[in-house]
Amino acid sequence: MGTRAWALLLVLCGTIFLEGIDVAMLAVAIPSIRSDLDLPTDTAAWVMSAYVLGYAGFTLLGGRAADLLGRRRMFLTWLTVFLAFSGLGGFATEGWTLIVARFVTGVSAAFMTPAALSLITTSYEEGEQRNKALLVFAGTAAGGFSLGLVIGGLLTQLGWRWVFFAPVLLAAALLVAAIRLIPAQPRAGEPGNEKSPGRPRRRTEGFDILGAGTAAAAMLLAAYAVIRLEHGLDGWQLTAGAAVAATTLLVVFVAVERRTPTPLVRLGILRTGSVVRADLGALLFVGAFFGFQFVLTLYLQELRGWSSLQTAIALVVLGCDAILAPTLTPRLVTRFGHAKVILGGFVLAVVAYGLFLPVGMDWSYAAMFPTLIIAGTAFALAYGPLTIAATDGVVESEQGLASGLLHTATQFGSAIGISAVTAVYGLVSSGASAGSDPDATLSAFRAALIVPVAMVTLGALLSSFGLRSRTKPPTAGGKPTAPANTTAAATTAATTSTTAATTTATAVAAAATTTAAIPAGPAAPANPTRQIPS
């Protein structure tokens, strides 16, 4: 690649790095923010959950918007929004300001991330050049979150506001460079862009406003209902109401998509078995992964008394997927096929989480290390090929849509996994003095660990069906087409670790939300707001 191509890649990599460290640093800083602003538990929880709601609620729309409205436009617009509202958070003196800032930051990430990824797949020639670009992008994405844990701990020592201001400085530099380096996109069908959707033609391409509105509202309500699961039966009417409203809006959305000539989501894509199976598998795998991380974080900080920085450094080993995803996984996929590698990742996850079930009160880090390294390896093996399956056979004009569906599944997976382990912890510790009795707390943690084991076991059963399935020819509007995104397995696997890194950041936000909310229960750990999975 030439100098300009490398410069463009650096900008796009910088964006995904920015998104990763932003959430990681904030998760580390939450205890200091809560103490300095004297925030109540519920407000501290919403500072984190607002990001999850914004990201999960608009990911599907963000992926499709990149296809229809132009990738450069979406990237620059939402990077600007990200910059502005990150700065707003740094100047906040009230909890509501932080909540608004984090919600809009989550929305901007939901639009910015798929735009950045699709800019790579359309800016670099398919083959060796694109493979190299995706490998660099993937490594940067995964490394951004892991480094953010440590950087966040250091910046918090200087003052928690730097956790907001540091991303502003980085975003501003990236924005200036992006304006110069990202080329303008010709409209669909114009010379130089015959096969790429580019920007939609104004006379022939409409935008499904009603579908976009109902989809965003349904996803927001669904995400809210999932987050509220952590409260168990407390306020169940509100949880049930949100779930019913989300279901109703989803029904309305389907009806709208069936009738509109230019649907936001072509429903036929959901009839592709590999896509649906991969999305469900990703939901289960990611939910188990971050549910486990959340329980482990509570164990280390609340029961063992480790600091946030100590915990972050200890869990960095889980970030081994940043190395394995672009190196080992492509070779395995090439040799064995993605279905077998997915199943292998699920089986490794079952082993990893199962090894931690008998965790003791005084386990050394050496005793925990096998679980951590196996869990990180399992993530590298399973998530990459799951993304291959989720995008395999999807035409180029719907790659943003397929990415949005996968991102939506992973966002909900992380929220469901963390809420489920929290609910089990609360049920087991209810009526017992888990907050003051270490043995009762440990028993509650062990019970909660059953959730990730069950989720990956179910995922392994689901993924086993992929061994016998055959990939059907991709379709667009019901007509067979040739696969438009058939880059080598190494390319797709590298791309998947990018998605994994973004998911990691969002799942950590959900974990922080749950941690802050735990004190509402009668048997909560003593220091509720500390957290940090890697």
From TrEMBL:
GO terms for biological process: response to antibiotic. The chain crosses the membrane at residues 45-63, 75-93, 99-121, 133-156, 162-182, 209-229, 235-256, 276-300, 312-329, 341-359, 365-384, 405-428, 440-462. Residues 471-499 are annotated as: Disordered. Residues 8-471 form the Major facilitator superfamily (MFS) profile domain. CDD domains: MFS_MMR_MDR_like. It holds the Pfam family MFS_1. One of its GO terms (cellular component) is plasma membrane. SUPFAM superfamilies: MFS general substrate transporter (SSF103473). Keywords: Antibiotic resistance, Cell membrane, Membrane, Transmembrane, Transmembrane helix, Transport. Its main location: membrane. GO terms for molecular function: transmembrane transporter activity. The keyword Transmembrane helix applies. Residues 472-499 have a biased composition (Low complexity). It is found in: Cell membrane. It is a multi-pass membrane protein. The keyword Repeat does not apply. This is MFS transporter.
